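hey so u asked for the seq, here:
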Amino acid sequence: MATSSSFILCSLLLCLVSSQTLATTGSQPKALVIPVTKDSSKLQYTTQIKQRTPLVPIKLTIDVGGNFQWVDCGSGYLSSSYRPVSCDSQTCTASGSGACTAECYTPPAPGCYNNTCSHMTNKPFGNSGGMGEMASDTTVIQSTDGRTVGKAVTVPGAVFTCGATWLLGGLSAGALGMAGLGRSEVSLPVQFASALKFPKKFAMCLSSSSSSNGVIFFGDGPYVFLPNVEVSKSLMYTPLILNPVSTAGSYFQGNPSTDYFINLTSIKINGKAVLLNTTLLNITEGNGGTKISTVNPYTVMETSIFKAFVKVFRQETKNLTKVSSVKPFKYCFSSRNTPSTRVGPAVPIIDLVMHSSSVYWRIFGANSMVQVKEDVICLGFVDGGSNPRTSIVIGGYQLEDNIVQIDLEKARLGFSSSLRFKQTTCSNFNFTSSA
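ran it, structure tokens below
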């Protein structure tokens, strides 16, 4: 039995009306918050939300540049509030979908309804993907005042895409999909902001520890970490650059990238410029440029950039004893004669210089060196080959214990550098409920 597209559209509109009505009562929060856990075995970052009716906790791997949330619908997805998104809906158009499932040849169930909007679900780990049905369902996450956790908030019709069960292979154990936070009209930050009427803005703080949670805030600051350290006022900002060509593993032709690209113009190590082919830092026909990523565990550089970067770094580390490389790293050192500081091993400071010489993302030893053995540290940057799609991908390790704010309305990225200088870390948000 086919599901009526008009019923689906009405359901989506009712959800929107419900959220708007709640917003006008003054009961809606100014921000939401979710925990972020580091999976050291898979080198992924995960979170948990509650979805469906009745509610089910859903573990998701985070993709900061992902188009939308996708969830496995092939393994017993049960929910009375599930609603497929119709092909002719505004939601389908806004998502950038280029496909429609006119008729499904099995009995109606989540992931298989007639006249539904279809989208490509991506799993960046292995660059695999497939088609899935777009749908909406009840989602519940916690509110916050920026200091602690408040009451649970219900978003009645959060849109996501049904993914196939086989796509779960390679994800963190127990993950049922991926949480897309990218530059898209259907990403989670945009949906939460639209439903709850707060700014289209989110801040991500990844913990370097697998035993203590980091945090993502949806909405504006303050962003307060124990012991009462407020970090939103000390961010530097650089414009977000739109890549007009999708950088996803699979996509519909004509769609722009949902990844967050920034205007990196140069790199300095201990104040010394790295000699780069700067044309690689520009985006040309979708190729080149610099973006941030939570699915790349370490920063990846095009080969010529990587070699020039390492050359200067080694010149500045003549006091370190080079040892055999440890995959995936090429340059490793003995840590026996390397002093430790509040911000990690005492190694050269790396500055990623943005659109202005006065705007730079400073990387200290805690984010540049990886402890791979008891007495071996490696430069945590990876050679990405001579012809990568994106010239520099700033990976998760370099983001840890830094707060990164994405402001979609102002099209800018804010960054803090290491919070360790402020005597706190991303694991110091107070998740103890105040409600």
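The longest helix spans residues 5-24. The chain has two domains: 5-198, 230-428.
lmk if thats what u needed
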